[in-house]
Amino acid sequence: MPSGRKPLVARADDPGMVESDTVSKHRATYDDLLRLPDNVVGEIVDGELFVSPRPASRHALAASAIQVDIGGPFHKGVGGPGGWWILFEPELHLGADVVVPDLAGWRRERMPRFPDVPAFELPPDWVCEVVSPGTARLDRGRKLGVYGRAKVGHFWIVDPLARTLEALEHTGSLWSIAAVHGGDDKVRVAPFADVELSLAGWWPPDT
Q: Please, what sign has the CA dihedral across residues 184, 181, 199, 1?
């Protein structure tokens, strides 16, 4: 079983990424997303439709553990400074792109009131993608570009198979690697450096 989501529909001119018999040959619209079944995740990147199944076990464990570790001190203010909205799989409308990161966070000073909306147009301050072999190319490539254009300040890439965390920061017009950690490291990583995180709880125990 794959460790995470795997794109089912990709670029018509990129057969290496196609995992189904159906490839979008027109510029994708939001109506295309609305027609998708509930058991998949749809995204529009650079006008093209990407469809992924729900996360498998390793992917789900990592995303859930990260939400707990960060949500407590930063969303709820328990054992930490608070001041953030931390959400699991929010739908983001960033210009013409529609993406669904595994996790995203907004500083409450930028979003003082939590909006009652189906999707967010205000770019987050932090996004986290939990990658699998099938999604890494999209997450590390074109979605990185989407987040850069939207001026997202911090982008975490978590790989449950490699057991790594890569933290990127957007400065000016460029992404830079701020930190790389892995295994059982205990780390402090921006923008959540006020609290020490133990990566060991993000992975399944060794058997």
A: negative
Give the global pTM: 0.86
In whole angstroms, what is the distance from residue 136 CA to residue 178 CA? Answer: 19
DSSP letters spanning 18-65:
--SS----S---HHHHHTS-TTEEEEEETTEEEEEEPP-HHHHHHHHH
Distance from C-alpha of 139 to C-alpha of 135, rounded to nearest angstrom: 6
- Whether the per-residue pLDDT at 9 is higher than 70: the answer is no
Which DSSP state fits 33? H
CA atoms of 132 and 3, how far apart (whole Å): 6
25-44 tens-digit pLDDT: 579 999 999 999 988 889 99
**Closest by alpha carbon to 160, among 42, 54, 55?**
55
Compare 133 and 78 and report the one with higher pLDDT: 78
DSSP for 89-102? S--EEETTEEE--S
Give CA–CA dist 53/41, Å, rounded: 6
Given this model, what pLDDT does residue 25 score? 56
56-202 fold: tt1808, chain A (3.90.1570)
